[in-house]
Amino acid sequence: MKFLSGILLLLACVAAQADPRQEDIAAYRALVQQDLRLATIGYRLASANAPFCARRERNPGWVIHDEQQYPERDTARAAFGFRRPVAISSVVPGSPADRLGIQAGDGLVALDGNIFDAQSRAPDRQSAARAEKIQQDLRQALARGRAIRLTLETANGQREFAVDPPSICASHFWVDAKSKLDAGADGEGVRVTEGLMIFARDDAELAAAVAHELAHNLLGHRERLKAQGGTRAVLATEIEADRLSVWLMANAGFDPKVALRFAERYGRKTGLGIFSAGTHLRWKNRVSVMQAEIEAMAVTPRRSGLLPPPLLSGADWPLLAKN
Ligand SMILES: [Zn+2]
Q1: Which residue of 128, 132, 253, 293 is surrounded by the most CB atoms within 10 Å?
Q2: Tens of pLDDT, residues 116-126
Q3: Ligand 1: distance of its center to the CA of 84 in Å?
Q4: HEC profile for the chain?
């Protein structure tokens, strides 16, 4: 009997490899769906506020992934239909990539005629290093300011796309697979936990969290805190991020008042203020700081339809029309 159950176990393993379970496939797809949700909100904030950003980059609005970054490669293949080991994971609706007809599942073949070496060198451990290297090559090529020729393996065979997207605020957005309600900014990217994404009732609430973190990056807070740390400096950067966040939201077409509601819900849930040792405002104070900014916005003249945030007024705005 022992022997038999051993065989059954072996068969179960083989079956699992050959035919990934539907629930695992659904879980993988749900994760990528969250990625796209965050990328879409991030793209909207970063493109609408582009004229006010000192650091910009040309971003086509796609998310790239590698079958190697998933623990179960067969499940990843079944879920996403990788046409190449590194492929388009999702495309932000309305982005330049979307308008070109690039689709999730399209595999990355070549850049300006040079074949990506993703096909030849596969890391043996779970890793996103290969996809990151390709991302970096794409960013560098786009930074030269002309159209790039991107060859993709599509549902209709290999196709070449001329990708020539406009500049938006330089930032990337990624989902951190943790249940804790948390988000962060490291100077270049914005991280949001899966827990916070689920806690956010709608996209406008999520945009409030993302705008706050993006504001930290646009204001160079990480560098400032490296130069002068301490409780008071942290508190000052938190207030600035709250102040700027509502301007970023308004320019991207999100109702900035949602940030007030979200700050209250988040504050009540996490109890921030009691345990934060003076580095963060209590939610009631956050709400009044942001309320004052919303009142200031109401009497600020628009330029090219946008509200220039006073906290970013040091930057020159060459992308903004004079009137
Ligand atoms: Zn903050």
Answers
A1: 293
A2: 876 556 666 78
A3: 38
A4: CHHHHHHHHHHHHHHHHHCCCHHHHHHHHHHHHHHHHHHHHHHHHHHHCHHHCCCEEECCCEEEEEHHHCCCHHHHHHHHCCCCCEEEEEECCCCHHHHCCCCCCCEEEEECCEECCCCCCCCCCCCCHHHHHHHHHHHHHHHCCCCEEEEEEECCEEEEEEECCCEEECCEEEEECCCCCCEEECCCEEEEEHHHHHHCCCHHHHHHHHHHHHHHHHCCHHHHHHHCCCHHHHHHHHHHHHHHHHHHHHHCCCCCHHHHHHHHHHHHHHCCCCCCCCCCCCHHHHHHHHHHHHHHHHCCCCECCECCCHHHCCCCCCCCCCC
